[in-house]
């Protein structure tokens, strides 16, 4: 039996007369929030290098936001999925493909791009930056790792008739060489008996293109949230590492210091010791560990 719709059309007949132009269609982009952790230089060779959370940004070589800094990304091509486009952008900027990557959120506000209606399907990637030499793509003048700081500035709550609304304002500070980018992002979550809704709003912005401050804030929140319940931080580590190095990575993501004993109890099932040690370089050699793949989540 051939099924027909209310107009008496079969599916084949419907598709023959269907006009995609009846609905305005947005362009779709894939934007990448790429994090790594790198050592800072120290003048005292006896002191262990401190680690810092880094974010890859590109300086735009064309309009709009000419000369501004933005996340790596580009438009999805007709033959690609958004994930394939994101991996292509990742390869073009870092030369890497097989890395941890997950979808964050789809940002679809009509006014987020001055050119036209552009929806951004954003992704977060974690890479070992020591193995990467970043390079700018075709539409960029420069690509660089920026130091990341994301600090809570203000917290408020408002009682509603059927729930509560909580808001947090964060200062997002990105620095590299002589470049300083500063934004204030508000995260607002409304809890009611029927639903929970979270929105990000850019309160102020100096130096970041488009609405990328929101994408970065969303990624940092995701990374910090998964730090407590998964082994996500291990994707930022080399094959062999010390427990001190791993703790430093946890601390730079969380934005706070952790107690050594409590931390080691927390990660003991995620790592396994090896017979290798660090080379003596002004301080005592430390045992090297690797991931325990059976417990990676």
Topology diagram in text:
Elements lengths: L10 H7 L9 E13 L11 E10 L8 E2 L2 E3 L6 H13 L5 E8 L10 E9 L13 E21 L2 E14 L2 E14 L3 E11 L5 H16 L15 H12 L5 H8 L3 E7 L9 E5 L6
Parallel strand pairs: 1-6
Antiparallel strand pairs: 1-2, 1-4, 2-3, 2-7, 5-6, 7-8, 8-9, 9-10, 11-12
Explain how this protein is built.
The protein has about 300 residues and is an alpha+beta fold. It has two domains: about 25-225, Alpha-Beta Complex (Nucleoside Triphosphate Pyrophosphohydrolase), CATH 3.90.79.10; about 230-295, Winged helix-like DNA-binding domain superfamily/Winged helix DNA-binding domain (Arc Repressor Mutant, subunit A, Orthogonal Bundle). The chain contains five helices and twelve strands. It has helices at about 10-15, 80-95, 210-225, 245-255, 260-265, and strands at about 25-40, 50-60, 70, 75, 100-105, 120-125, 140-160, 165-175, 180-190, 195-205, 270-275, 285-290. The strands form two sheets. Strands 1, 2, 3, 4, 5, 6, 7, 8, 9 and 10 form a ten-stranded mixed beta sheet that branches. A hairpin with a 2-residue loop joins strand 7 and strand 8 (about 165-175). The mean pLDDT is about 90.
């Amino acid at each position: 039996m051939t099924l027909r719709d209310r107009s008496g059309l079969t599916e084949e007949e419907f598709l023959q007369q269907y006009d995609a132009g009846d609905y305005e269609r947005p362009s779709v982009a894939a934007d990448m929030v790429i994090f790594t952790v790198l050592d800072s230089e120290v003048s005292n060779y006896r002191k262990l290098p401190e680690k810092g959370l880094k974010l890859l940004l590109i300086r735009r070589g064309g309009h709009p936001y000419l000369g501004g800094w933005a996340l790596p990304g580009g438009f999805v091509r007709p033959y690609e999925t958004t994930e394939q486009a994101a991996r292509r952008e990742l390869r073009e900027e870092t030369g890497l493909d097989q890395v941890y990557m997950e979808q964050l959120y789809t940002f679809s506000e009509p006014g987020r791009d001055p050119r036209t209606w552009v929806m951004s399907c954003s992704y977060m990637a974690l890479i070992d930056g020591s193995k990467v030499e970043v390079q700018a793509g075709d539409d960029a003048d420069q690509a660089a790792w920026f130091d990341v700081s994301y600090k809570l500035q203000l917290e408020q709550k408002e009682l509603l008739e059927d729930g509560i609304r909580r808001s947090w304002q964060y200062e997002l500070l990105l620095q590299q060489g002589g470049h300083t980018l500063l934004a204030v992002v508000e995260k607002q979550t409304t809890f009611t008996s029927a639903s929970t809704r979270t929105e990000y709003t850019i309160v102020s912005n100096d130096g970041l293109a488009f609405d990328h401050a929101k994408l970065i804030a969303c990624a940092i929140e995701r990374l910090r949230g998964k730090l407590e319940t998964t082994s996500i931080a291990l994707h930022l580590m080399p094959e062999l590492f010390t427990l001190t190095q791993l703790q430093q990575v946890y601390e730079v993501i969380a934005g706070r210091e952790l107690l050594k004993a409590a931390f080691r109890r927390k990660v003991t099932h995620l790592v396994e010791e090896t017979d290798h040690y660090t080379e003596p370089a002004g301080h005592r050699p430390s045992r090297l560990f690797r991931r325990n793949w059976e417990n990676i989540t």
